[in-house]
Queue: 2 jobs
Job 1
Amino acid sequence: MKHIRTERWEKHDRVNEHRARLLISCPDKPGIVAAVSDLLYMQGANIIESSQYTTDPTGGQFFLRIEFESAYMDQFLSVFETKMNDAATKFQMDWRLSRASQRKNMVIFASKGSHCLLELLWRWQAGDLLVNIPMVISNHEDLRESVEMLGIPFHHIPVTKDTKKEAEAKQLELVGNQADLIVLARYMQILSPEFVVTHPHSIINIHHSFLPAFVGAHPYERAYDRGVKLIGATSHYVTDELDEGPIIEQDVARVDHKDDVEDLKRIGRTIERNVLARAVTWHVEDRVIVHGNKTVVFQ
Ligand SMILES: Nc1nc2c(c(=O)[nH]1)N[C@@H](CN(C=O)c1ccc(C(=O)N[C@@H](CCC(=O)O)C(=O)O)cc1)CN2
């Protein structure tokens, strides 16, 4: 019997074989949507979904996401790039295009905590998270069995303060050019600038607090000591500044005086895994545009 993932992927590929997504960011001015939609129309494409946002209609930054279909996508793309570059020059656009059927390769980094990793693996196994997972890398052995039982390679690379440089070199050698996206699923090691620069705005972390509160290590203990009435989780792109990268998604839950630190962690685990899964899904579906240290998310 075919695995449910395979069946869902085959259905997805049939629907998305002729679809592509165009993301644009540029200074706002009249005529942008008309120029882009005309370019698509003149090449026989049909717009399926279009979302836009401007920071200031009198001259801010404009953001556009268009999902479109073309019966002849290969031929369409061979011509589109040249014409799009002309429009991009005219409107000073940053733009990127991706084919909906081109599944991104997602490498996951984890430590000992399993909840965020397993949420991603479960959604992948169910065919709900449309990515390829070339490998999982961990600085501990604890999660090997959970990963390998799904047929995904698991690589254990221990990390200590003294061996971090060598460990990262091994990680990067393993990842090579296999990762369109790296997800830190409660990976508890700070990545060096030399690592982060290899995957700009393509490393997603889940921080176990409602940022900007409680940046860094042990947020639940600090939240408990502070007597908070809300805890939360934040998924963000990784930058050199710890837990300061562009936020993609957040959520919170109520807690009270009866909850101890272990209660906060238990309640928090549900928030973390769902926040991370939403952020990863939106990134994979090309719904996130980074602008400065913020994001625009066309959900
Ligand atoms: N360059 C970045 N790397 C990482 C980020 C980030 O935003 N930028 N987020 C962290 C995840 N994280 C909180 O969400 C976090 C993980 C680890 C630590 C920390 O102090 N780690 C120590 C080692 C702890 C240990 O050995 O158990 C360290 O790396 O020296 C703080 C925050 C992931 N990486």
Note: Residues 184, 187-191, 196, 205, 207, 216-217, 238, 240, 242-243, 245 surround LMY7XDAE (CB under 6 Å).
Job 2
Amino acid sequence: VKLTSKCVSSIKFREHKRSVHGICHQRIKTIAAMSAESLQGQSCKSLGVCSKDTPLVSISDMPDLMKSIPRWKLATDQKSITLKFSTRNFMTALEFLNQAGAVAEEEGHHPDFHLTNYRDVEVALYTHAAGGLTMFDFIVAAKIDAVPVDVLPQKLSHD
Ligand SMILES: C[C@H](O)[C@H](O)[C@H]1CNC2=NC(N)=NC(=O)C2=N1
């Protein structure tokens, strides 16, 4: 069968795309094995813009990644990570959210923020475009962990 030049170029394009995707996967795999410090040193921009094609973090990579962000909890459906704490007062909570917001804006990757009971903060992260957890989320989580905040020791009851 004589392959038309169009068909050959589309095969070449698909091979090229597969190899680029492979590199992207590989790059994401190597980042996954990183510690908190090196996660904090990463930039979402180096991964391009997240999209529906951004690879989800594989279940086998989760335990190591979660060790890098020990304050965060992995949702039971493994599709998001959450950070919860109480601060000294309302303005401390607001200050933290503004600083964490600046990190998110710089990375172009945004958490869900909750401020309830005037000082209880909850930050939730997942990649909306991909419908689950990608390396974008772990990089932003590690950077948010570097934001200083005056956290109250875990409250025993609502005072
Ligand atoms: C164009 C822009 O980069 C995208 O809309 C970004 C913005 N911030 C985002 N944040 C999160 N958490 N998930 C996304 O899919 C996402 N997409």
Note: The pocket of H2B is lined by residues 49-50, 108-110, 127-129 (CB under 6 Å).
